[in-house]
Amino acid sequence: MPELPEVETTRRGIAPHVEGREITEVIVRQARLRVPVPTDLIERLVGARIGVLARRAKYLLVPLEGEASGTLLWHLGMSGSLRMSRLGELPKKHDHLDLVLDDGAILRYHDPRRFGFVDWLAGSAAQDSRLARLGPEPLSEAFDGERLFTRSRGRRLAVKPFLMDNAVVVGVGNIYAAEALFLAGIDPRRAAGRISRERYERLAAAVREVLAAAITQGGTTLRDFVGGTGEPGYFKQRLNVYGRDGQPCRRCGAELRLVTLGQRASVFCGHCQT
């Protein structure tokens, strides 16, 4: 699943090609996505101009300026990607939607599993129910170890699913939670409420470090993820624990262990993470 770094990589990749451009045509090949494509989307978008792209958690926000101003809320689901194409470039089997721009470029949405969606928001995006209850961005000043410590008091939930709760902090998915816990030296099975403030400060710093590195390197290559320019992510080359169960720890050499937490596979080092 594309996580926060993949969505941010996509935003940065497509922004220079779409911001300020007018939409001249909308082509919907498959409207039956996780949220059906709005029936009036073509009417709303043609003639509108794209503003400055933003991201909230794993959602991409595409503001539109014109007679029908509003925001496109885009989610890539399990296997979706947005990439730039040109007129004359034939669509692939799972290319479900095109935004044709006034310079001949095409913003093309590809999603084999169709778990993603694009929706229209006429009012303030911040008031949409899918965004209103989200926690702070992990790379913002609103996220720190004190918040983790305060929100965790009395919680018996394991720290890894606690860290992945979007009400606590957004966008820390399975891959990056595992990697951050390794860097912070915290066992992912430990109860969230039994971790000290000092250790949460280390964990918050590790979350920021892991996500910043992943964004810099273009996200993580998992299955068919590519960024907005069609380039794959490269962060997988640096993963310390995720997907490496049974292999030696890069730090101490002990065999990495696999457990299931919150119905998600979790790999950790029993020697380095306590």
From TrEMBL:
Residues holding DNA: 94, 113, 155
Top-level taxon of origin: Bacteria
Catalysis: reaction(s): 2'-deoxyribonucleotide-(2'-deoxyribose 5'-phosphate)-2'-deoxyribonucleotide-DNA = a 3'-end 2'-deoxyribonucleotide-(2,3-dehydro-2,3-deoxyribose 5'-phosphate)-DNA + a 5'-end 5'-phospho-2'-deoxyribonucleoside-DNA + H(+); Hydrolysis of DNA containing ring-opened 7-methylguanine residues, releasing 2,6-diamino-4-hydroxy-5-(N-methyl)formamidopyrimidine
Cofactor note: Binds 1 zinc ion per subunit.
Known EC number: 3.2.2.23, 4.2.99.18
Co-factor(s): Zn(2+)
GO molecular function terms listed in the Swiss-Prot or TrEMBL record: class I DNA-(apurinic or apyrimidinic site) endonuclease activity; oxidized purine nucleobase lesion DNA N-glycosylase activity
Record key words, sorted: DNA damage, DNA repair, DNA-binding, Glycosidase, Hydrolase, Lyase, Metal-binding, Multifunctional enzyme, Zinc, Zinc-finger
Active-site residue list: 2-3, 58, 264
Any Pfam family: Fapy_DNA_glyco
Residue ranges of every copy of the FPG-type domain listed in the record: 240-274
Annotated PROSITE patterns: FPG_CAT, ZF_FPG_1, ZF_FPG_2
CDD domains linked to this entry: EcFpg-like_N (cd08966)
Annotated Formamidopyrimidine-DNA glycosylase catalytic domain residues: 2-116
Description of how the protein assembles with itself and partners: Monomer.
Family as reported in the entry's similarity comment: Belongs to the FPG family.
Its job: Involved in base excision repair of DNA damaged by oxidation or by mutagenic agents. Acts as DNA glycosylase that recognizes and removes damaged bases. Has a preference for oxidized purines, such as 7,8-dihydro-8-oxoguanine (8-oxoG). Has AP (apurinic/apyrimidinic) lyase activity and introduces nicks in the DNA strand. Cleaves the DNA backbone by beta-delta elimination to generate a single-strand break at the site of the removed base with both 3'- and 5'-phosphates.
PANTHER family in the record: FORMAMIDOPYRIMIDINE-DNA GLYCOSYLASE (PTHR22993:SF9)
Protein name in UniProt: Formamidopyrimidine-DNA glycosylase
Species for this entry: Halomonas rhizosphaerae
Gene assigned in the entry: mutM
